[in-house]
Amino acid sequence: MKELKEQLINRIKAHFPDITVENNFNYNRFDVSINKESIHSILFYLKDVMGFKHLSDTNCVDWLEEGEFEIVFIVWSPAEKIKIFVRTRIDRNNPVLETLDMIWPQLHTYEREFREMFGIQFTGLEAPDEFILEDWQGPPPYRRDFDTAAFAAETFFERPGREDAEDVREAITKLTGEEIPEFAKKYSR
Amino acid sequence: MNPVLNIFILFLGGAILTYFAGRINKVLQSLLFLASVLVPAFLFYTQLSIGQSATFSVDGITLNWSLNYFGWLFSLIVLGLGAMAAIYAVSYMKGKQRLGTFYFNFILSIMSMTGILLSQDLISFFIFWEIMTWSSYLMTIYNGNKVQSIGIKYFVFSAIGAYAMLMAIVMVHSITGSFLIKDLINAYPTMQLGMQIWIPVLLLTGFAVKAAMMPLHVWAPGAYSNSPMAYTSVFSGALSKMGVYGMTIVFVTLINKIPQGIWFREVIAWMGGITAVIGTLWAIKQDDAKKLLAYSSVAQLGYIITGIAIGTELALLAGLFLAVMHALFKGTLFMVVGAVEKQTGTTNFTEVSGLIRKMPWTFFAALLSIIALAGIPPLGGFVGKWMLYESLITSNHYLLVIVIFFSSTAAFLYCYKFLFGFFLGQEEKEWSHVKEAPAAMVVPMVILSLLMFVLGTFPGILLSPINNGLQALGYTDSYKNLWETSVILNGWGNHVVLQPILYYIIAIFLFFVVFLTLKGYKNTRYVTTKDISSSGEIPKEDENLTFSENFYQPFFRAVEPVMRRQIDKFYKNLGEGLEALFEFMRRIYTGNGQTYAIYVIAFVVIMLLFGNYLLK
Amino acid sequence: MVGSPVLFIAIPLLAAFLIPLLGMIWKESVRIVPGLVLAYLLVLSVSLLQHVLAFGPIIEIIAGWKPPIGINLVFSPFSGFLVTLMLFLGLLVWAYSYRFKRNVEYEPALKYFLMLMMLITGSVGMTLTGDIFNMFVFIEITSISAYGLTSYYKERNSAEASFKYILLGSLASTFLLLAIMIIYSQLGTLNMADIATKMHLMKPGYKVASLIFFITALGIEAEIFPLNGWAPDAYAEAPGPVGAAFAGIVVKAAVYAVIRVIYTLFDLPGAYQFLIVIGIITMVIAETAAIRQEKLKRMLAYSSIGQMGLVLIAFGFGTKEGIYAALFIMFNHAIIKSLLFFSGSYLAYNSTEKNIADVSGMAKHLPLTSLLFALGAFAIIGLPPFAGFWSKLAVLTAAADSSLWLIIALVLAVSVVELVYYLRVVNRVYFFKKEEDMEPQKPTVNAMIVMLILGAIILLVGFYPDSVTGLLHKASSDLMDKSQYIQHVLSAR
Amino acid sequence: MESVLYNILGAVATFLLAFVVGMIYGGLNRKITARVQNRKGPPFYQNFIDAMKLASKRSAIHHGIMQHFGPAFIMVSSVMSLMVVPVLTHNQWFPNLNFHGDLIFLLYIMVFGPLGMALGAGQTGNPNSAIGVTRGLSLMTGFEIPWVMALVALMIQYHTTSIVDLMNVQIQSGTWLMFSSPFAFIAAVMAMLGMFRYSPFDIVGAPAELASGPISENGGKYLFVMMSAGSVFAFVKLTLYVDLFMGGADNLVILLVKTFVLYLIPVLYSLTTVRYRTEHAIRWFWGWPSFFGLLAILQAVFFK
Amino acid sequence: MINDKNSQKIVDIIQNWARQHSIWVLAYGTGCGAIELPPTMTSRYDAERLGVRGAATPRQADVLLITGYLTTKTLKRVIRVYEQMQDPKYVVGFGSCTINGGMYYDSYNTIKVLDKYLPVDVYINGCMPRPEAVLSGFAKLQERIAEGRAEGAKKYKENLEWYRANQKKIIPNWVMPDYNW
Questions:
Q1: Which of A110, B240, B247, B359 is the most exposed place for a label (fewest CB within 10 A)?
Q2: Residues of E contacting chain D (CB within 8 angstroms)
Q3: Chains B/A: 3 or more C-beta pairs closer than 8 A?
Q4: In terms of domains, do A97 and A47 share one?
Q5: Complex ipTM tops 0.90
Q6: Chain B residues whose beta carbon lies within 8 Å of the beta carbon of residue E57
């Protein structure tokens, strides 16, 4: 396993010398960080040359403190049974990335979601503006600086819950005089 | 002057005058057109009495035109529907090009059909038949669409039929020495067996083409759908009935006279049944209203042919009653399509929908015609269908009745498709500008559809002329005294009394309509067709909620093996094969002088070698 | 006695020779004189025909030598009818081709009218003559002028067509001479009536051989199937009116010759069946070939051949009804095919290739011409109530009376084929889009009048066939009655 | 005048009877289904409550005149066929119109309603309705074949097309037609499965697939009339089968017993099967049922 | 049960009885609560014995079940479905999410208090309510219907402007068709 991973890392490194590898997992996974200019070429390389044909998932992480978005592509090689997390970071204040949906068509959907939820602009992405949120006028809701509670309080009506934090069972018992059965007791608070 | 000739002179003169009047004034032309259809029709019924005749001789051939009861029966279709269609046509054709041609051919068609009905000899019958053929051909290609495919197909099939008929005519002449139909009928039972078989076969081929019977029906959908709708209502309603007219005469006066006639009857009856099934199935498949109605005409003519071929009293009555009914409802339906076409510019079900609120009267006419077409009581179609079934059952055609029944059950599918496609369904914004057709178009449709209603309850109005007509053909009718105006009965003494049924239907219908209307009248409201329970989704303006593509897909999955074979393809392949053969023939003429010289020498040599045998 | 049949040969020949001389005086006379001559001859022939119908045939003896030694002309109802028809058509062809092409120089016009006169002379002579060698001469006259007319346009294709015609025509002359030689050597006479009386003396082998040579030679002119290779090319490459002249005049004369030879000269009953067979083959092949043609005039040419096949079939029945039908078809064909050639020429006036595609959409620009073409097409197919129907009916009735059912079926089947190709053209004329580079050409007034006359005749005969049938009946009984012909000729004073 | 009044009274009485019986049978169907599924199920009169509730709906909507009239069309069909079918033998209270019509009239008046409803469904513009209608009409081409075959077999065997005559035949011979013409009975019963449109032939309404199909835009009073018409129609069908094959019924109790036994066939069959696709349903009817229909005709022709 | 007999006519009593025992439920599965309906309807709990039955379309339904949280996006559809239903009609809120947002109390796209947008007749609390609770909710609804107190539809019609204002507040782009009430 380790040898295999080493081998793969070396192969990648041979082509992309500026990557950082975090190979600190004992199972079939290792992580690769790369700058946003090389993300297309490394994904192409992984897919077409090294056989990482399958895109398992794509995520976006809002590093508010560092002022960056991190986008993670999880690719999987059915032949080697290895998955690689390819990470790249883009500027949070100017979140622009060239579209990647020519590599994996399913990235199209992910990109639309990132655009709507994080406000990342993908140049060359051909899709309608609206994806999941209808008539959304606030800031991109997945950004960490978006305060949903405040937004909800402002937008929606509120109905406060009970203040007493009493057990429902006990309330019922009090109300009706029923006994709580033995078997039920251990599930009640 | 003889009133028979007067009518023809009026027709012909009217046609020519109308053609040229277009140069002067369009309104004058329309008026002349109406006059030259309506005036002779009026004269026909007022001046002409049964048995009136005109005889003259051309080229040594005696031509005899006279009116009998049978012709009079069909004249109701020709002149009645013709007059309605003429009124409709004036409005329908407003603003179209080449009106003169249209009117000219329209009048000639009516004239030739009247002529066919009056002809008592085969030559004038054939002449009028051919005039009818080419005038309808010119109408078929009037729009200038698909001229080479549809027009030529129609004419070639017509010609095949007509020439078959012509062959029979000269056969008759060679045997009897006369062209009079009377002489044929008299001489027929004493002819040789070969002639007894060939003459009806050839005549029936001729009539079957016009009546669109099964292997010869392929021209019909194209021709019907390609003509202007004002004409198609006559084309399908009346012109195809000329085939039925001829067939009836052949069956009643010739085939029934010989013992071998049973085979004819069985074969033609089955062909009619198969025609009905195939026509129905293909009608269901069509997305274009014209095509649908065209195939439906084929199917309906199948019933009529079956009825006539069975040849019992009831079956003949059924066939002829259906023929008249078909003229009424198919004439109306083609007019409806014409109205829709004029108002919307298309006749495709996948494009038009939800016209019911825009064109209520057209819908009313279409609804009544469709009910009649489907054979549902209390409209006239039911009477014909009922008699047809009863006659089939009482004359031991058990499997045929199943075939016919299947086809008429399947007919509900296209009936519904027609109404749904045009009038029901979503009211698209695209058609919000559509208005009801002009009154001159609506009135004929409504009159015809009300006639269907009357005939559905009082079929006796029509059955007694049919009876007279059959007697004129020499048919003795055992039902004569049993018919009443609103009772229909079969050979086993079972009957349906239509009048109380109608009253019941009206009473129940009115009761529940009143109930539905009055109950919660204030809280009952009309909502648009966009307001449907579409899982809460709000339909957008451009969203297509009309279900019209692949309308009967599951049905066609079930009948798929039947639909795979198309007789049309067979003819197409035949045509292509023939063309290839002709191409080979053409290559005999190489264009090379030496070859031609060799031909000559070869001819001489061969002749010299074999001349003794050939020329002696 | 209004005039003598010899005028039919003398006047046009004289006119043909005088035209160049007159042309030197007044150039326009080249165009006008032939028309005057033809008109005069037409009047003459009509009056003669009336006389003949009333009093029996006229036998003109030339130079006092009585038959069977001398040359004689026979103006019987049959030949008279044909002569009248030919002259009528000749007049129409003249009227039509008067100013057919604008700006034609003097010399081509001269040649054209000269040769047209020769053509008519030859054809009329063929029909009138009662002498087989004389017939040969007239055939030569006809052929030579026909060669000239075929190559009138002086183009490669016309020359080629003309050459083919010459090739086959010279074969025809050869065989005709052979036939005449055989007969003369055997019977020592050239007079038709005389030959007919002496035919039984001839040895069967010679008889058959001479008939074969006759059929071959005349068949080439009459467009019988394996011998008609020249026809499509010649029709297609000759000017439009000449096509009408070929179809209406030359071929009619040739068919007349064939029929005269078979009916009068020989007594071989097998020849009738042979006529039917060869007629069917001619008709079927020609009509099926016509459907695949791309050029308008070629198509019309094949159609003509097919009609000639039908005529031969009708003659082959050997009955009076058959002859009547054949004559009726000949009449109708002459009228209708001329109309088709005339109107077709204008529809495809500016087309160099004369393709069928070139007439597309002409109806918008030439409505009347197109209408007349359509009328002609409908009539030749045999649709009632136009002229063609009655002749077709006559053929079928005649065949039915002889119980030839298969032939009826074949004729009708071929009619369907005919219908298809004519309709294709008519549909094109009316419903297709005009080709970009085709400039419609308005017919001249005289051409229009000619076409209208033809159209009127078609309608007249269609609605009232009795207008010609009486004449046809008389003509046909004349051909049937062989002994009367012989008697008339031999007893001529 | 009196006879007219009598007729009308009889008609109303017949209608009420059919309505009540049909409703109860519908309720029993639900009850039986529930019991088979190990549920308690609604009471047998649940359908009355549903009908009453629908009738008491305050508001209603329609998309146009055809939808408004649609239920009336169905009602006409149901009531007319009820009028033509003799309910009880020799009972003067329910003679109605059954001497004015025959089997073929009945066949046609029976499709009057579905077509009228189809028009109403079409006008709603709901695609589900139209799909349901097309399925229903397609299904009809399926089950009409064996059904007509069975009827034709009966007609040609006894030389009559009248239901009354066929009943009289059974009374005179003392044998039910289901025993003397077994194949016709089998074919007819198989066709009945399609006629009732219970599972596996519930492709028209197709719960959870088409959102109740043609009636999906109808509520309140419209649905009430439709439901009543359906109940009456179910009664008519069952009575017709009893009349044709089981010798009719002399009194109401026998009628109810016979009809209920018949009714159990589609009900129980529906519980054991799942829904077919439309084309399978059509082909099913063109298979064995039509084969039995053919046998019935052969029997009628050769073993009179 | 019927507390004020004088105020209700006999027809109303019968009608309410019918409405009470025939509850056709439009199971509009908006949230996780929809999974509780199959057990409610099937053999263990068998709601059909109370006359509760599924209806396929809003035209036929009496009760609109809001089974769980409602996002703003779904609310639009729910309002439309509710307005398509025929009078008298009832809304049953299902689970805590419809009452006060439940675990989605701070979500940016789910509404918290259903009765501000639609007139709720009965709330069933729980997260999720078990079938017993659902049945008890239906029983409560039946009780209210019988008493003639389940007049949410009337309330909605009377206070339409108020409801509309609330609805429009969270659905700024109001493209709903205006029904002619």
A1: A110
A2: 14-15, 17-19, 21-22, 24, 42-43, 46, 48-49, 51, 53-57, 59-60, 62, 86-88
A3: no
A4: yes
A5: no
A6: 533
pLDDT tens digit sequence for D120-163? 888 888 888 888 888 888 888 888 889 989 988 888 888 888 88
Q: How many whole angstroms separate alpha carbon A179 and alpha carbon A170?
A: 9
For residue A53, what is the DSSP state? -
Domain boundaries, chain B: 259-476+543-565, 566-615
Q: Tell whether the model's pLDDT for residue D96 goes beyond 50.
A: yes
What 3-state DSSP class applies to E117?
coil
The answer to whether B454 and B461 have CB atoms below 8 angstroms apart is yes
Q: How confident is the model at residue B432 (pLDDT cuts 50, 70, 90)?
A: confident
Q: What is the pTM of this model?
A: 0.88
One-character DSSP codes across C234-256: HHHHS-HHHHHHIIIIIHHHHHH
Give the CATH number of domain E5-170; options: 3.40.140.10, 1.10.12.10, 3.40.462.10, 3.40.50.12280: 3.40.50.12280
Do A11 and A35 lie in one domain? The reply is yes
- Interface mutation target, options E15, E22, E151, chain D, most CBs of D under 10 Å: E22
- Nearest Cβ partner for D124 among B360, B389, B532: B532
Angle of helix C387-401 versus helix C320-347 axis, rounded to 10: 150
Q: β-pairing, E63-67 with A68-77? A: unpaired
Q: B594, B577, B574, B593: which is closest to B585 by C-alpha?
A: B577
Clarify whether residues A188 and A95 are in a common domain: no
* Nearest-CB residue to B174 (from C293, C403, C466): C403
Beta-strand relationship, E90-94 and E63-67: parallel
In order of B598, C160, C164, D92, E60, the CA distances from C167 in angstroms are 11, 10, 5, 103, 94
One domain, residues A143 and A81: yes
Is C203 at the interface with chain B, CB within 8 A?
no
Tell me the per-residue pLDDT of B104-144, one tens digit each, with 9 for 90 and over: 888 989 999 999 988 888 888 898 998 898 888 888 888 87
Residue of chain E whose alpha carbon sits nearest to that of D49:
E18
What integer best gives the mean pLDDT of chain D?
85
Q: Which residues contact D84 (CB under 8 A, 6 or more apart)?
A: D96, D97, D98, D100, D101, D105, D106, D109, D163
Residues B386/B496, Cβ–Cβ less than 8 Å: yes
Number of domains in chain A: 2
* Residue among A44, A30, A45 nearest A82 (CA): A30
Q: Which residues pair with B352 in a beta bridge?
A: none
User: Which sequence spans correspond to the domains of chain D?
Assistant: 2-302
Q: Can you tell me the distance from the alpha carbon of B138 to that of B106, in angstroms, rounded to the nearest whole number?
A: 10
Rg (CA), chain B: 26
Q: What is the C-alpha to C-alpha distance for residues C307 and A87, in angstroms, rounded to an integer?
A: 90
Q: Which residues pair with A76 in a beta bridge?
A: A54, A83
Distances (CA, A) of C50 to B414, C43, C44, C54, C81: 68, 11, 10, 6, 10
Residue A97: exposure state from Cβ atoms within 10 A (0-12, 13-18, ≥19): buried
Q: Point out which residues pair with A77 in neighbouring strands.
A: A82
Whether residue A172 has pLDDT greater than 80 = no
CB-nearest partner of B152 from C163, C288, C423: C423
Query: Which 8-state DSSP code applies to residue A38?
Result: S
Residue A59 maps to which CATH number? 3.30.460.80
Chain E contact for B522, CB < 8 A? no
The pairing of strands A20-22 and E122-124 is unpaired
Cα separation, B550 vs B557, in Å, equals 11
Q: Are E125 and E155 in contact (CB under 8 A)?
A: no
Of the candidates D39, D42, D223, the beta carbon closest to that of E60 is on D223
- Burial environment of residue E161 by CB neighbours within 10 A (0 to 12, 13 to 18, 19 or more): exposed
Q: What percent of chain C has pLDDT over 90?
A: 2
